[in-house]
Design a protein that fits this description.
This protein is an alpha/beta fold. It has a single domain, classed as NAD(P)-binding Rossmann-like Domain (Rossmann fold, 3-Layer(aba) Sandwich). Helices cover 41% and strands 18% of the residues. The strands form three sheets. The chain has a seven-stranded parallel β-sheet, with helices on both faces. It has a two-stranded parallel ribbon with strand order 7-10. The chain has a two-stranded antiparallel sheet with strand order 8-9. β2, α2 and β3 form a beta-alpha-beta unit. The longest helix has 28 residues. The protein starts with 7 loop residues before the first strand and ends in a 5-residue tail after the last strand.
Length: 267
């Protein structure tokens, strides 16, 4: 039996990258997982991989920012697996510009995905959390970023959203402590995903929710960033997932209202 046997977890943005590794790790430890992605195919692939390893999972596709998604996400967990024990608000992306070039659409979109969506998911979960038994601890892990701590040029929208998520984390830790729910955050530094992979030029884009978003880090900037990390490299999604898993275990039952910075001691 895994450390999370009998638990049910929501993991937003878990069709790819860090979220996928979080979902796989929680499933390996015995949790039933509700997998989410914008696109049906990567969500189904994660579900299939969990099932092939003997785990339980179901997909709930769609944008976390769309109206009604939060309620559907929570209901999928309760209706399919009969409960809700772990919430990982992982979905998010960047849409960068310096402030004088940043549009209202860029600002609103990134705040909606990275801050408003987690708020809505947690709000939708509250009635179940309030009425659930308190014989063990439930866990919330909100995925923030070092951009929310230190800022990052070109990311006024993302930095503000991730800083706001830390405030939401600390507030909800106080509100939900009475229900024996631990609410914590993880702030990642450089993690090597499709959003941060080395781009040959500055015009590499991904279509996200109908928008072509420029992504990637050019080789010179990646080399400079790596020099600031004592290990000399960015982290892997598997390493990132391990930190989230830690905050989902019974060993973290007295850890609350904290943010675990996972950046390998970047200076």
């Amino acid at each position: 039996m895994g450390t999370l046997s009998g638990k049910t977890a929501l993991v937003s943005g878990s069709g790819r990258g860090i979220g996928r590794e979080i979902a796989l790790k929680l499933a390996r430890e015995g949790a039933a997982v509700v997998v989410n992605d914008l696109d049906p195919e990567p969500a189904a692939q994660t579900v299939d991989e969990i099932a092939a390893a003997g785990g339980r999972a179901v997909a709930c596709t769609g944008s976390v920012a769309e109206d009604g998604f939060a309620e559907r996400f929570v209901e999928t967990a309760v209706d399919t697996f009969g409960g809700l024990d772990i919430i990982v608000n992982n979905a998010g992306y960047t849409w960068d510009s310096v402030i004088q070039k940043m549009t209202d659409e860029q600002w609103d979109t990134i705040l909606d995905v990275n801050l408003k969506a987690p708020f809505r998911i947690l709000r939708a979960a509250q009635p179940f959390i309030k009425s659930a038994p308190t014989d063990y601890h439930r866990k919330v892990v909100n995925i923030s970023s070092v951009s929310g701590f230190y800022g990052n040029a070109g990311q006024a929208n993302y930095g503000a959203a991730k800083a706001g998520l830390l405030g939401l984390t600390k507030t909800l830790a106080k509100e939900w402590g009475r229900y024996r729910v631990n609410v914590n955050a993880v702030a990642f530094g450089l993690i090597l995903t499709r959003m941060t992979e080395i781009a040959a030029d500055t015009d590499t884009t991904l279509n996200i929710d109908g928008r072509d978003i420029r992504v990637g880090i050019n080789a010179d900037r990646m080399a400079m960033s790596s020099k600031m990390i004592p290990f000399g490299r960015g982290g892997t999604p598997t390493e990132a997932a391990g930190a989230v898993y830690l905050l989902c275990t019974p060993e973290s039952d007295y850890v609350n209202s904290q943010c675990l910075v996972v950046d390998a001691g970047r200076v």
